[in-house]
Design a protein that fits this description.
Number of helices: 4
Strand content: 15-25%
Shape: extended
Structural class: alpha/beta
Number of strands: 9
Oligomer: single chain
Helix content: 10-25%
Radius of gyration: 28 Å
């Protein structure tokens, strides 16, 4: 089957469980509800005409402030450099609603096709979705990473522990509202002979670019006193 035909056929097979489709050349993204992700994933793997037997990658996405741009590029602004370093409190133009999504990148080795499956978690405060470890074993550590970095809970995961941060880490660092300087800093205390956690000592400050307000090369006084060579003669 050609690319358009197999994509159409996939939609026929999955039916109403797919709520949105984004189709580009060589790229197909299917979106389903979190409650349907396990059934959709199983069908994508087991159906003879689909055969997506490999989970290449799985990642969490935080759509907080999605759609907002802090830099105005279509018109001039008088707010200066501060617009790039001082974040506003309100989110203008951002997409409201579902915040956390899980995106799975699938591969059909037999048919040499790729597909992206996206599902949004129903609850923004406690994002939760079914684990895909039972469908693709490779989802195990991918889901642990998404839990660690985004705080997404995967129901049915056999060992949902942090993977990249340490055991005492506070928060989830890939969330859009996580402070860039973190919550605590770590250092070794020679008196206690162990690693200790302390409040962050970094003070947030606004960085300003270096501004050259005067260039001597274009100083009229210097230009008038600089000797110039006569026409046709080199300066000596």
């Amino acid at each position: 089957m050609s690319e358009p035909s197999w994509a159409s056929r996939a939609l026929e097979i999955l039916g109403d469980s797919v709520r949105r489709v984004d189709s580009l050349p060589d790229e197909l993204t299917l979106e389903c509800d979190a409650s349907q992700v396990l059934a959709v994933a199983t069908t994508l793997r087991d159906h003879a005409e689909l055969g997506f037997d490999v989970l290449v990658d799985l990642a969490g996405v935080d759509y907080l402030e999605y759609g907002k741009s802090e830099w105005k590029t279509t018109s001039a602004t008088g707010s200066g450099f501060s617009r790039g370093v001082n974040r506003g409190g309100s989110v203008d133009g951002a997409t409201a609603g579902r915040r956390f999504a899980v995106v799975s990148h699938l591969l059909s080795v037999r048919r040499n096709r790729r597909l992206r499956l996206r599902a949004f978690c129903a609850d923004n405060d406690e994002p939760m979705i079914d684990s895909l470890v039972g469908v693709w074993a490779s989802a195990n550590w991918f889901e642990r990473e998404a839990f660690d970095l985004f705080g997404i809970l995967f129901k049915g995961h056999p060992d949902l522990r942090r993977l990249l941060t340490d055991y005492g880490f506070i928060g989830h660092p890939f969330r859009k509202d996580f402070p860039l300087i973190g919550n605590v800093e770590v250092r070794y205390d020679p008196q206690k002979q162990r690693v200790v956690y302390e409040p962050v000592s970094i003070e947030p400050r606004t960085l300003v670019p270096r501004v050259i307000r005067h260039d001597n090369r274009y100083d009229p006084a210097l230009i008038e006193t600089t000797p110039t060579a006569a026409p046709g003669k080199a300066a000596g």
